[in-house]
Amino acid sequence: MNSIDHGDISRHTGTHSSPEVPVQRAPILTNHPSRSITLPSPEFFGSIASGAHYAGALSPTHVEHSTSHLPHKRAPSLGADDPIVHETYRGVLEDVKELFCARPSLEIFQRRWRKDAVFEDPLSTAPTPTLFAHEFSLADRVALVSGANRGLGLEMALALVEAGARAVYCIDLPKEPSEEWQKVREYAAKVSGKEGQGRLEYISGSVTDQDGMWKIGESIGNKEGRLDVCVAAAGILKSHTDCLTYPAAQFRQVLDVNTNGVLFTAQAAGQQMARFGNGGSIILIGSMSGSITNKDHAWVSYNSSKSAVLQMARSMACELGPQRIRVNSLSPGHIYTNMTAAYLDSQAHLLEKWASLNPLGRIGRPDELRGVVTWLASDASTFCTGSE
Questions:
Q1: Where are the beta strands (DSSP E) in 289-366?
Q2: Cβ contact 286:313 at 8 Å
């Protein structure tokens, strides 16, 4: 993941002129207290914009100043360090710059977060879309997905491959991958079309084994030289059990997989993200049951475990943010998976009930989470962390 860099943008702006663009007054300043204060000259804003005080702001070499549209009397220029400036314009600098500039610079339209992006000249050729070519692309990224031998986890792993990931490592308990996984792997290889790219790999392991998960993460890092995305999707659901007599061993088992396992998976990937310094995205699969309770379902262990996952994501997001590692949780509603099929296939009334609780009048499919997982994994969501 590339860091934010406005420093290289100037070389893409060019030196040509463009038609005059009327500038509307910024609404935030219409009734702002600064209306009663004599403002610095437009040249002041141009000068500080080109300096170190406000990196990435408007460049004076590409801005034409005009006073005809100004709502205030021009005043002598003030220095950038003048305390009056800092007090008057703190929090509204961007609005003031727009207000004082007769024409915004091309930088405003060409600014992008990827410092290596190359942009077409918007005045001479049609602009090149970047949303799916860059922001949503996972090109050369490496991912780890737990619980990905089948079902929801496998669907998410495939989505990452289709988004361009170099390799996606599927971690699950069985010693050998399922037939479903094998078919998906064959499909993924055809989608990629490039040898060594779009690989779907399988590793047998238990998410409840902290040391084992850490070693898996390290082995992936050693082999690939990076680890960028983590989807902690492994989870279990036990049968209905009265909360007043819920067995301790069963309660611990559910929390061990659904809560501890999610943490250990996130640790395995997060350690490698920190190791290589590229940042990354960790996606913890929670559940709507972490926020609400499904009435008539005695799932105190499952609900408790998923609630812990939601708070885990918020906590980890705050800790790892400085390293550009984002942590978010995803809370699916009623989805038809291998886990829920055990109930739905044998209880027809349950399917009807669950469907009636959704505004769409149906339950969801695993593939309907592909888009949101890809978004959270990619640069399209670089300002999203600690969210559910």
A1: 325-330
A2: yes
Residue 298, pLDDT score:
79
Residue position matching structure tokens 């084992």: 212
Tokens 């390293």 belong to which residue? Answer: 323
Among the listed residues 268, 313, 281, the one whose alpha carbon sits nearest the alpha carbon of residue 377 = 281
pTM, full prediction: 0.69
State how far the alpha carbon of 375 is from the alpha carbons of 5, 160, 229, 268, 358, in Å. 22, 10, 11, 22, 23
Catalytic residue among 306, 307, 329, 336: 306
Contact 1, 280 (CB under 8 A): yes
Question: Is position 306 annotated as part of the catalytic site?
Answer: yes
Single-letter code of the amino acid located at 241:
T
Of the pLDDT bands very low, low, confident and very high (cuts 50, 70, 90), residue 239 is confident
User: Which of 346 and 53 is assigned the larger pLDDT?
Assistant: 346
Can you state the angle between helices 179-192 and 151-162, rounded to 10 degrees? 10
In this structure, the number of other CB atoms found within 10 A of the CB of residue 186 comes to 11
Burial, 354: exposed, middle or buried (Cβ in 10 Å; 0-12, 13-18, 19+)? buried
Here the tokens at position 282 are: 């960790």
From the list 89, 169, 302, 336, the catalytic residue is 302
User: How many Å apart are CA 137 and CA 380, to the nearest integer?
Assistant: 9
Work out the end-to-end distance of the chain between its first and last CA atoms, rounded to an integer number of angstroms: 22
Out of 192, 287, 301, 307, the active site residue is 287
Place of tokens 């408007």: 58
Buried b (16+ CB within 10 A) or exposed e, 253-262: ebbbbbbbbb
Q: Domain boundaries in the chain?
A: 9-126, 134-381
Query: How is domain 134-381 classified at the CATH fold level?
Result: Rossmann fold (3.40.50)
Q: Of 115, 123, 109, 34, whose CA–CA distance to 75 is shortest?
A: 34
